[in-house]
Amino acid sequence: MDGLDSSEEEEVEEETKKKKRTLTMEDLEKCGYKERPSILLVPEPKEEDTGISEEWSDGRAHRKREEMREENAEERELTRKAVTEDVEVMAEFAVKRMELAEKVRQERKQEQRRLARNRKLTFNQKEKAKRNAGQASGGKNFIQEEKRIGRNFGLYSGFDT
Question: Cα–Cα 20 to 30 A to 84, which of 47, 57, 65, 157?
Protein backbone atom coordinates (compact mmCIF):
# COMPACT_ATOMS: atom_id res chain seq x y z
CA MET A 1 0.00 0.00 0.00
CA ASP A 2 1.49 3.37 0.84
CA GLY A 3 4.15 2.11 3.17
CA LEU A 4 2.16 1.95 6.44
CA ASP A 5 0.92 -1.33 7.71
CA SER A 6 -2.29 -1.72 9.67
CA SER A 7 -0.70 -1.40 13.13
CA GLU A 8 0.89 1.93 12.22
CA GLU A 9 -2.40 3.23 10.85
CA GLU A 10 -4.14 2.36 14.12
CA GLU A 11 -1.45 4.23 16.09
CA VAL A 12 -1.92 7.36 13.95
CA GLU A 13 -5.70 7.22 14.46
CA GLU A 14 -5.26 6.82 18.22
CA GLU A 15 -2.94 9.82 18.36
CA THR A 16 -5.44 12.03 16.54
CA LYS A 17 -8.18 10.85 18.86
CA LYS A 18 -6.08 11.49 21.95
CA LYS A 19 -5.18 15.01 20.91
CA LYS A 20 -8.07 17.23 21.87
CA ARG A 21 -8.23 20.16 19.60
CA THR A 22 -8.87 23.45 21.35
CA LEU A 23 -11.47 25.73 19.84
CA THR A 24 -10.12 29.17 19.00
CA MET A 25 -11.73 32.38 17.85
CA GLU A 26 -10.15 31.97 14.42
CA ASP A 27 -11.90 28.60 14.00
CA LEU A 28 -15.24 30.16 14.90
CA GLU A 29 -14.69 33.11 12.54
CA LYS A 30 -13.98 30.65 9.72
CA CYS A 31 -17.38 29.10 10.38
CA GLY A 32 -19.12 32.49 10.17
CA TYR A 33 -19.33 33.49 13.84
CA LYS A 34 -18.41 37.04 14.81
CA GLU A 35 -16.77 38.32 17.94
CA ARG A 36 -19.10 40.41 20.10
CA PRO A 37 -19.13 41.49 23.74
CA SER A 38 -20.52 39.00 26.21
CA ILE A 39 -24.14 39.35 27.22
CA LEU A 40 -23.04 38.82 30.79
CA LEU A 41 -21.17 42.14 30.73
CA VAL A 42 -24.15 44.20 29.47
CA PRO A 43 -25.79 46.12 32.34
CA GLU A 44 -29.51 45.64 33.04
CA PRO A 45 -31.79 48.37 31.66
CA LYS A 46 -32.64 51.15 34.07
CA GLU A 47 -36.24 51.37 35.21
CA GLU A 48 -37.91 54.48 33.87
CA ASP A 49 -40.72 56.11 35.79
CA THR A 50 -43.77 55.84 33.54
CA GLY A 51 -46.17 57.25 36.10
CA ILE A 52 -48.15 54.02 36.17
CA SER A 53 -48.27 52.32 39.50
CA GLU A 54 -48.03 48.55 39.54
CA GLU A 55 -49.88 48.38 42.83
CA TRP A 56 -53.59 47.73 43.22
CA SER A 57 -55.84 50.73 43.65
CA ASP A 58 -58.90 50.91 45.87
CA GLY A 59 -60.68 53.25 43.43
CA ARG A 60 -60.83 56.27 45.70
CA ALA A 61 -58.74 58.48 43.42
CA HIS A 62 -61.04 57.85 40.47
CA ARG A 63 -64.12 58.54 42.58
CA LYS A 64 -62.67 61.89 43.67
CA ARG A 65 -62.13 62.93 40.05
CA GLU A 66 -65.75 62.07 39.18
CA GLU A 67 -67.11 63.97 42.18
CA MET A 68 -65.23 67.08 41.12
CA ARG A 69 -66.82 67.02 37.66
CA GLU A 70 -70.39 68.30 37.69
CA GLU A 71 -73.00 67.46 35.10
CA ASN A 72 -74.17 70.45 33.11
CA ALA A 73 -77.71 71.11 31.88
CA GLU A 74 -77.07 69.79 28.35
CA GLU A 75 -75.76 66.50 29.61
CA ARG A 76 -78.73 66.12 31.96
CA GLU A 77 -81.13 66.80 29.11
CA LEU A 78 -79.40 64.25 26.87
CA THR A 79 -79.58 61.67 29.64
CA ARG A 80 -83.26 62.35 30.29
CA LYS A 81 -84.04 62.14 26.57
CA ALA A 82 -82.17 58.85 26.15
CA VAL A 83 -83.93 57.28 29.13
CA THR A 84 -87.43 58.26 27.99
CA GLU A 85 -86.84 57.13 24.40
CA ASP A 86 -85.37 53.83 25.53
CA VAL A 87 -88.33 53.20 27.83
CA GLU A 88 -90.71 53.80 24.93
CA VAL A 89 -88.76 51.47 22.66
CA MET A 90 -88.71 48.76 25.32
CA ALA A 91 -92.46 49.16 25.90
CA GLU A 92 -93.12 48.80 22.15
CA PHE A 93 -90.93 45.71 22.08
CA ALA A 94 -92.79 44.16 25.02
CA VAL A 95 -96.16 44.81 23.35
CA LYS A 96 -94.98 43.23 20.08
CA ARG A 97 -93.64 40.24 21.97
CA MET A 98 -96.95 39.76 23.79
CA GLU A 99 -98.84 39.99 20.49
CA LEU A 100 -96.55 37.39 18.94
CA ALA A 101 -96.99 35.06 21.92
CA GLU A 102 -100.79 35.38 21.61
CA LYS A 103 -100.59 34.64 17.88
CA VAL A 104 -98.53 31.51 18.54
CA ARG A 105 -101.05 30.37 21.17
CA GLN A 106 -103.92 30.83 18.70
CA GLU A 107 -102.04 28.86 16.01
CA ARG A 108 -101.43 26.00 18.47
CA LYS A 109 -105.13 25.90 19.35
CA GLN A 110 -106.10 25.77 15.66
CA GLU A 111 -103.60 22.97 15.06
CA GLN A 112 -105.01 21.00 17.99
CA ARG A 113 -108.57 21.46 16.66
CA ARG A 114 -107.49 20.30 13.21
CA LEU A 115 -105.80 17.24 14.69
CA ALA A 116 -108.93 16.45 16.71
CA ARG A 117 -111.03 16.59 13.53
CA ASN A 118 -108.53 14.34 11.74
CA ARG A 119 -108.75 11.72 14.48
CA LYS A 120 -112.38 11.08 13.48
CA LEU A 121 -111.44 10.38 9.85
CA THR A 122 -110.75 6.92 8.47
CA PHE A 123 -107.32 5.91 7.24
CA ASN A 124 -108.29 6.39 3.59
CA GLN A 125 -109.69 9.85 4.30
CA LYS A 126 -106.48 10.84 6.08
CA GLU A 127 -104.35 9.59 3.16
CA LYS A 128 -106.49 11.53 0.67
CA ALA A 129 -106.09 14.69 2.75
CA LYS A 130 -102.33 14.16 2.78
CA ARG A 131 -102.23 13.70 -1.00
CA ASN A 132 -104.23 16.87 -1.51
CA ALA A 133 -101.84 18.77 0.75
CA GLY A 134 -98.85 17.36 -1.16
CA GLN A 135 -97.73 15.27 1.80
CA ALA A 136 -98.32 11.84 0.33
CA SER A 137 -96.54 9.05 2.17
CA GLY A 138 -93.56 8.19 0.00
CA GLY A 139 -92.86 4.90 1.71
CA LYS A 140 -95.60 2.85 0.00
CA ASN A 141 -95.33 2.92 -3.79
CA PHE A 142 -93.60 5.86 -5.41
CA ILE A 143 -94.44 4.81 -8.98
CA GLN A 144 -98.15 4.42 -8.26
CA GLU A 145 -98.17 7.89 -6.65
CA GLU A 146 -96.46 9.45 -9.67
CA LYS A 147 -98.93 7.78 -12.04
CA ARG A 148 -101.84 9.08 -9.95
CA ILE A 149 -100.39 12.62 -9.96
CA GLY A 150 -99.89 12.41 -13.73
CA ARG A 151 -103.51 11.31 -14.24
CA ASN A 152 -104.68 14.29 -12.19
CA PHE A 153 -102.88 16.54 -14.70
CA GLY A 154 -104.36 14.71 -17.67
CA LEU A 155 -101.29 12.67 -18.63
CA TYR A 156 -102.16 9.20 -19.81
CA SER A 157 -99.02 7.42 -20.94
CA GLY A 158 -100.63 4.05 -21.58
CA PHE A 159 -97.97 2.50 -19.39
CA ASP A 160 -100.31 1.69 -16.57
CA THR A 161 -103.34 0.57 -18.58
Answer: 65
